Amino acid sequence: MRKAVIPVLLFAAVFLVSWICQPFTLICQEYEGLFLATPDGWARAFAQPFPLSGIASDWLVQFYRDPVYGALIVAAIVTGVFLLLRGIVARRGVPFADAISTLGAGLLWFFLARAAEPKPGVAVLLILEVLWGLSLLLPARKEKYQWYHLPLASVVIVAAAAVTALSPAVMRIERFSRVKRDALYGVWDDLLKAVPPSVAEKDGELTPFALLALSAKGQLGERMFSYPVYSENDLDMCDYDGNTEYYTSLLFKAALYQHLGCYNEAVHNYFQWATQLRKGTSFVVLRKLVEMYYLLGDYTLMEKYCSVLDHSLLNRTYVAYYRGLAAQGQAHETEPASIRSIIPIISHDPLYNLLQLESFGIRADSFADRVLATILLRANPTQLRGALEQLGPAYERIPKHFQEAMVFYGIRTGPVDDAVIQRYSAFIEDLQLLPDDQLIERYRNSAFLYLQYAIQ
Amino acid sequence: MHRPWFPATLFLLVLLGTGCARIAFEDSAQLPPIVPDYAGVTVPEGMAALSFDMADGRPCKVDCRREGDTLFYTVRAWDRKTRRGVRYAPFPVYVSQDPIDPYIAYRLIEPSYEGWKEMGLYARELASYRERPIVVNKDTKGGCVNCHHFPAGDPSRMMFHARGAGGGTVFTDGDGVRLLNLTTVGPRRQGVYPAWHPSGRWIAFSSNDTHQSFPIYGHQQVEVYDQTSDLILMDLQTDSISVCPALYGDDRMETFPAWSPDGRTLYYCVADSVSSVGERRAEVHYRLESIAFADGQFTGEPQPVWGCDTLSVSHPRVSGKWMLFTVAAYGTFPIWHPEADLYLMDLETGETAPAEALNSAETESYHSWSSGGRWVLLSSRRIDGRYTRLYIAHFDGEGHFGKPFLLPQKRYAHNTLRLKSYNVPEFVKGDPGRHGRAVSRLFAR
């Protein structure tokens, strides 16, 4: 009974910390994981380094879709490592076996909390099993139990829990995972909760996601400058390339074009994002391809990805849902070559893409906001005037930041709130009087500051 | 006496009895609705067994009997719930004694956009389902491997491009492997689509400046085009590269070289240069031309072979007096064009027609003749419109193709479950071997 206390405590601590502090990290591990019982899936599994732990890890990660199961699995791995370690250490009569084993398991826990998959944990577990088996061949030595063993091990568990839960790296992974989930599935309110302006100040690559959430909620023109916006890149990630930003920008663009209704470009970016993942594709990419091809009316291709997902454990309900939708839907016909040859192509200019989409009748609710915001960020008064003339009348009230740009450039294409005019007058006065840092502090939530620096 | 195994055995027997309940089969005069449609195809002697499923997913049993050069497949399919079945009319599969090359080589790659994770060149034995990697991009530090090519299907010699840092064109000769960066010699142009001269001494390459674009809407999700392209000639004896002024210049784009079997003529595709090709892609129509070749030099002027203002030609491949090529509505990369079909030309008479037996509503594109000229290997997207799969068709030497059959796999489902496309399929006369280790040593330097 005494022996069971420490593993139970450890299991409970790992489970609770993983479940409470890392639910999105676990979910995203499933998103980017892949286990397919297909010929190519097995071939890939056996071709990886440490295939046994890789296969076990890939299989387990399927359950991470529900963070409760994910946390249980992480807790089981860490506790398993503790038990095996203690089995080996205690058999050799090493003093402080409980504390040493807890420390070892705690280190693994901290490492796993930052890892992209449970594979390292599973590998350690398998290696320790072998070592434990070998240790049984050696003569056992008894270690005398001391009263302080339990409190010592408990202190180690609490310390490991605190270090893991409060680690900035772990928190950053969790926040980014939450943003990833929210962007992929359009949970915009939660995304804005996860990325308030203060967070975006510290982690600039999250700003475009926050602005995407604002545009989806129709608040881009009111709130975009509450976030640290320094260029058009902060709105659409148009210039990102290379390494981690590339991964992030592909994910962002997939979510952006899905939101804009440009499913071809969303598929393009999902495919490209997949090439950045460990296995070249993943559960979430396959699920997204099912969704995108359903929306595109290409049910044949949708069915292909459904068949592939059918060879995993926990996607059958999802697959059945989309098959049901397709059974009631109408597949789109392939356009003749004469039409295909004149369909506009995606360019590196997001504004051009928005306008081309609109010309083809693909107009998201956020179309006007994104067009005006893009032109505002380009600080082009002529284009802004033209765009406001066309898009302004559709607004009940032109959003605040666009009004600020109108006042700044002297554009008179629509009504402007008195408050905006007064604030601009104050801004002009303060521009002469205040040092830069105070000016920034006072006008950070306005287009005035951005446009002023843009013309400088 | 306690017998713990007794209830378990009884339960098992009941279970087996239920599972083996007799199924009543009704005879039907119809052919079975199977995927892929193998009814009436012609296969080479010794081909791996054809495997297929019922199109509606019902379980089935297949009996096969041979009468002369015809195999008759009788399919019995049944409904799992009602236990009622249908015995369909037997369908024939004709076995041809025309020899086929024992291996095929292809690249496996996601039908992707700009990037990739895993890709590789693979060889497949036609008598079995065995597929082996020749080289994978792990051996080239993740770079692209493409445009593999064998001189007249000789497995002992091969070339392919390995792109990326430290890359170039890899040549294998038996166990020897060497890497040459074509941009460091002659006109300093990169080689792309190759055509190995029948003598084995020269390789004609096209040198293309290739780009991709992505339509915002519609079934076709990728368009690939060249902004410029020319032809260059590599002499493997001296590792030198030369150009022919008639095939090299800014006003025309030459691509897809293909030699006649006697090596005296080079066929290729050519289009007039267009600015802003991405937007004006509908204006780009490639036509077929040829130029004479003797003693290592192109002679005379280019001669028109076939073309029209509303169609675009690619991938000419010659066998004897027959040329097979791909025709799309426009552009140079037909694999993304659902309308792309194969056309057959009699080079003696100039008579040209769509190879109707080979074509489908979806893309048909890259193809290869067997060394005996009686089989053709073609790539098609007819299963799902996106993933390229391989088909083989018999050719009677008189201008007629048999019904193409899908490259058999151990289980038909493999065609659906594989998330990679088959790319640049080529017949090979033997096992090309594995070159991964030797290539990775080249890239480790």
Any overview of this molecule?
- The complex is a heterodimer of chains A (456) and B (445).
- By secondary structure, chain A is an all-alpha fold.
- Among the domains of chain A are: 168 residues, no CATH class; 105 residues, no CATH class.
- Helix content of chain A is 71%, strand content 0%.
- Chain A contains 27 helices and no strands.
- In chain A, helix 6 runs parallel beside helix 8, helix 9 packs parallel to helix 15 and helix 17 packs parallel to helix 19.
- Chain A starts with a helix and ends with a helix.
- In chain B, a hairpin with a 5-residue loop joins strand 13 and strand 14.
- Helix content of chain B is 7%, strand content 44%.
- The mean pLDDT of chain B is 92.
- With 445 residues, chain B is mostly beta strands.
- In chain B, strands 1, 3, 5, 6, 7 and 8 form a 6-stranded mixed sheet that branches. Chain B has a 4-stranded antiparallel sheet with strand order 11-10-9-32.
- Chain B has 3 helices and 32 strands.
- The interface between A and B is large, with 47 and 42 residues.
Lay out the secondary structure.
The complex is a heterodimer of chains A (about 450) and B (about 450).
Chain A: H1 2-21, H2 23-31, H3 39-47, H4 51-61, H5 67-91, H6 97-114, H7 119-135, H8 149-166, H9 168-185, H10 188-194, H11 197-202, H12 207-216, H13 220-223, H14 233-236, H15 243-260, H16 263-275, H17 283-295, H18 299-309, H19 316-328, H20 337-340, H21 350-359, H22 367-378, H23 381-391, H24 400-409, H25 418-433, H26 436-443, H27 447-455
Helix pairs in contact in A: 1-5, 1-6, 1-8, 2-5, 2-9, 4-7, 5-6, 5-7, 6-8, 9-10, 9-15, 10-12, 15-16, 16-17, 17-18, 17-19, 18-19, 21-22, 22-23
Chain B: H1 5-19, E1 24-27, E2 34-35, E3 42-44, E4 53-54, E5 60-67, E6 70-78, E7 84-87, E8 91-96, E9 103-109, E10 120-125, E11 131-136, E12 145-149, E13 157-162, E14 168-173, E15 176-180, E16 194-196, E17 202-213, E18 223-235, E19 240-243, E20 252-259, E21 265-272, E22 287-294, E23 297-306, E24 312-319, E25 322-328, E26 341-346, E27 352-354, E28 364-369, E29 375-380, E30 389-394, E31 405-406, H2 413-417, E32 421-428, H3 436-444
Parallel strand pairs in B: 1-7, 3-8
Antiparallel strand pairs in B: 2-4, 5-6, 6-7, 6-8, 9-10, 9-32, 10-11, 12-13, 13-14, 14-15, 16-17, 17-18, 18-19, 20-21, 21-22, 22-23, 24-25, 25-26, 26-27, 28-29, 29-30, 30-31
